[in-house]
Specification:
Two copies of one chain form a homodimer. The first copy, chain A, is built from seven helices and three strands, in the order H-H-H-E-H-H-E-E-H-H. Chain A is mainly α and 170 residues long. Chain A has a three-stranded antiparallel sheet with strand order 1-3-2. Chain A is globular, with a radius of gyration of 20 Å. The two termini of chain A are 17 Å apart.
DNA sequence: GCATATAAGTCAACAACACTGACTTATTTT
DNA sequence: AAAATAAGTCAGTGTTGTTGACTTATATGC
């Protein structure tokens, strides 16, 4: 981690992030995130769904058997907002709920094959975009990319990120 | 740029990005972007504004004298959506319009001192979050972060990013 | 100069997605 | 038996996006 040392070194022309650099990064973030989500949004529109449906599908897919309140905690939205989305996903057969045997108040959720199919379709496009960006930027850049993203997340929320930072890359 | 060579090298256990790694990155993106915007959103709520107002203020601030249609091209939203936001910004004295002398159809926009003040307040918080993340991740990570973000942006839209990738860092 | 194109603004209607607050129904815990 | 929790529901609201049509002013091409 000698990058930290470099950063902290109070030397001549120290690389303290200047205001304009920060603005530049904010723009990159805005455009990158918009284009990243835009592709999936376009597909979802064909299904009469939106980004909220995607998020629900995604997090149910990564956390098989997740309960409603756990999903609420991840998404940080209200019960009402989630319910609207969840109802249509269940009605149209993308998600199934099953009463938890241990605690019969809880409804554990899973993707149906149909749901998994849609999740894959969406992930495919976004993965393609990421792969391209990773390839162009280089392996080192990808590691840095993930480190910065993690640092941007509220400390209390970092544990919510599923797997660790790709230990299998080497 | 030998990272590219590394990435492309078809060696044993080639670091081709696996599906789970990609999902991990998508989660990082989701949480990072949400927390990044959340801070500004909270401030904006006190002013009775939303993220759309912030974006308008931001891009008018970075592009002094921008015209309405140029702003529309950057934001990629409809005239109607922008106008709602723009009207309140003008009515409440955050933005001023001035007829272009060269082409009197165009309205060139600027932030008022009040607008610049709000822009700074918002940028301050987000800059603080980024600085923290940059510090924790290290200088090299920051460079990679920016390279990946740029690669994620639609090719046709990359020229819209204001300044180049921080040439003054060294 | 007149037709056409462009820049900006406006109206009406609509949809997605978030919010609040209150309230019900099961079920579990104390 | 009382209190807490998990889930679901209802009614109302606000922001931000959409479409399509239309007006006004100005510029440009022929």
């Amino acid at each position: 981690m000698d990058e930290q040392a470099l950063w902290a070194q109070p030397q001549d022309q120290a690389p303290a992030p200047r205001e304009d650099d920060m603005r530049h990064v904010m723009e990159l973030l805005f455009f990158a995130y918009r284009d990243f989500t835009g592709e999936a949004d376009a597909i979802l529109a064909d299904y009469g769904m939106g980004r909220a449906h995607h998020r629900a599908i995604y997090f149910i897919g990564v956390n098989e058997g997740i309960s409603v309140s756990e999903l609420l905690a991840i998404l940080k939205i209200t019960k009402q907002s989630l319910n609207r989305v969840l109802s249509t996903l269940i009605d149209e057969g993308y998600v199934v709920q099953e009463t938890d045997d241990g605690d019969r108040r809880r409804r554990l959720m899973q993707l149906t094959p149909k749901g998994r199919e849609l999740e894959h379709l969406l992930a495919e496009r976004q993965t393609a975009r990421l792969s391209r960006a990773f390839h162009d930027a280089g392996l080192d850049a990808v590691e840095g990319f993930q480190r910065v993203l993690l640092g941007m997340i509220d400390k209390e929320a970092r544990h919510r990120v599923s797997t660790g930072p790709a230990p299998g890359y080497s």
